Amino acid sequence: MVLIIGAGVGGGIVGMELAKANISVTIIEKGPFCDVKDSYKYYDKVDDYLDLSKTICVGGSSVVAAGNGVRILEKELANYGVDISKELDEVEKLINIHEMDDSHFGEGTKKFINSSKSIGLPVVKMPKFIREEDCTQCGKCAWGCPNNAKWSSQDFVKIAIENGAKLLDNTEVTKIIQEKGFVKGVEVKSLDNSTKFIESDTVILAAGAVDSAIILQNSNIKAGEKLWMDPFVTVGGVLKDINYNTEVTMNALIIGKNFVLTPHYSVLLNENINENMITNIDNENLKVDKIKDKDILSIMVKIPDDNHGKIINGEIIKENSIKDIRFIAEGAATAGAILVEAGVDPKTIVSTHLRGAHPGGTAPIDAIVDKNLETEYKGLFVSDASVIPEAPGAPPILAILALAKRLSKYLIEKYN
Fold it and tell me: Potential cystine with 375: which of 171, 252, 348, 380 (Cβ 3.0-4.6 Å)?
């Protein structure tokens, strides 16, 4: 039996592929199997000072992803002797990566595209895994799609179950059990805090870069020392009745040398904009109408990170470098220029605080895992963003899927 720890992007596809190949599979997930529309309830508060976007449920963070399918890291991984070009082609077809129809581009996104072109910036449509026929353009991608209009790893987990795989949700794996360098199984903890041992000589760890590192550390593997994540801010201002908050988010993209830009609405902007406007008023008797969500046009600024973070005793230690601040400032200035060109009142432009997304690098190829994603313990593999050695500065979903697809082929051949 193969044990898969985690039902997110890296675990779901392996479970599906192995189950379809008639290999006995059990998927263990820390969170519940919830409806996609309820997945916002399972955002994980990682740290008091670090605002990191991740969810704990079947499907992992894919259920609250914006549906972006950017092809990345092909050349970088090839430098490590890992070729995923064929697997990238396969997963693009598998989850139907495409540019959305013009009918699903709202006024805010159109202004982003036209204003970017107007000031000479190279803008393209974002590749997506959203089905137009099911998408009502409600702007709730990051909360869990109420219409289940986009692919998520839940789709693969369901197929795995249909093909005989077992799912243990609400069950936390605490460590890997090994003997003389060979995997024997895992220790798990249930909701009632009882622990038990599940036996297996093949374990695939796909709990995400943070939790996978903690499990590896609990199992005496020195992971978690090269953490990266993609720092980002959202910059926005007032453009009355633009209604961008109800559009398909991140439906266009600018790839710069040091940053990427994409239209993105954040609820954090509303309060900041209102406070900024009040601060700019000289006349105390002047009444200002409260700015509403529908009046905000905003842009995400995301930068590639360095591998300077660590996970120590279950805590994330992460600092931003001077380079990070410079790249964020450069991207924010460019975003501001686009917003002004689009008609946003420059006096209202503000930014969110710095946040983080897409953590990875905690069990990198050529350090913690080999080219087949196997650790020093025979039979223990890692299949999530942990193994990616360099920060992409963009959503790594396609790269994770391709790496997991490649691992599936290796395991199927090994079992056969």
Answer: 380
In the chain the domains, ranked by start, together with CATH numbers, are 2-102+144-226+358-415 (3.50.50.60), 230-357 (no CATH)
**Dihedral angle computed from the Cα positions of residues 220, 222, 224 and 228, in that order, rounded to the nearest 10 degrees:** -150
- Token look-up 């064929």 returns 86
Give 180-228 as a DSSP string. Answer: TTEEEEEEEEETT--EEEEE-SEEEE-S-HHHHHHHHHHTT----SSBE
Torsion on CA atoms 77, 80, 86, 88, rounded to nearest 10: -20
pLDDT (tens digit per residue) in 312-323: 988 888 888 889
Alpha carbons 158 and 412: distance in angstroms, whole number: 20
Phi, psi (degrees; rounded to nearest 5) at 9: -60, -45
In 10 A of CB 168, how many CB atoms? 16
Instruction: Give the span between the Cα atoms of 172 and 193, in whole angstroms.
Output: 9
Greatest distance between any 2 Cα atoms in the chain: 79
Query: 208 pLDDT exceeds 70?
Result: yes
